[in-house]
């Protein structure tokens, strides 16, 4: 059967924006075909640049690090919840997920779409997005899902500490900064967000994509 692949990742480039307190993104020519016979690039960026994955160690010193995650948490069938009607700074609550409760079960991969990615790279992309409430984070944690993904840069811009600790404390992998979810015309699809195998660290960029059978 024909398969359509959808790129769900933000671009990484020199000066690509990130949160104000994070390392800046630098993509620099190191050598060229003219200087040494081949092109090679040096890059430096946050482990949470662009489309990326949070491991529990991001907020929990005793939490699992990136290389300790199972790929099964990052790759496989995912449920897509359309919240594109949400307005800037509007809360995303348990009520928004209740209709899908029977499918939000242990180990599930859940992704929500707000279309906020269209605001990247504007400064307000990092502050004004629809946000996950603490109550929703607790609801997801109680259901022991395996992964939560979103097309915003972080679940919550103000209560980021308790929301992250609830999710990561429940061993839920968080995939942030997705884009292009409007191209997914199905409630379930194959999703991949395998991280770089950074030993002992808190997160990693991913090349996220979806696959649909036509």
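Sequence proposed for the structure above (214 residues):
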């Amino acid at each position: 059967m024909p398969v359509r692949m959808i790129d769900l990742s933000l671009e990484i480039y020199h000066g690509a924006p990130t949160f104000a307190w994070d390392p800046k993104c630098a993509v620099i020519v190191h050598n060229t075909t003219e200087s040494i016979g081949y092109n090679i690039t040096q890059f430096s960026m946050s482990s949470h640049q662009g489309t990326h994955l949070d491991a529990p160690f991001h907020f929990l010193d005793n939490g699992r690090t990136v290389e300790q995650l199972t790929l099964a948490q990052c790759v496989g069938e995912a449920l897509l919840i359309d919240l594109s009607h949400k307005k800037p700074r509007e809360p995303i609550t348990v009520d928004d997920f209740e209709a899908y409760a029977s499918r939000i079960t242990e180990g599930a991969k859940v992704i929500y779409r707000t279309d906020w990615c269209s605001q990247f790279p504007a400064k307000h992309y990092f502050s004004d997005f629809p946000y996950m409430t603490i109550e929703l984070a607790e609801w997801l944690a109680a259901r022991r899902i395996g992964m939560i993904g979103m097309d915003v840069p972080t679940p919550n811009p103000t209560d980021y500490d308790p929301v992250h600790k609830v999710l990561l404390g429940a061993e839920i992998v968080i995939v942030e900064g997705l884009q292009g979810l409007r191209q997914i015309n199905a409630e379930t699809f194959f999703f991949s967000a395998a991280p770089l195998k950074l030993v002992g660290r808190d997160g990693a960029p991913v090349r996220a994509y979806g696959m649909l059978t036509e």
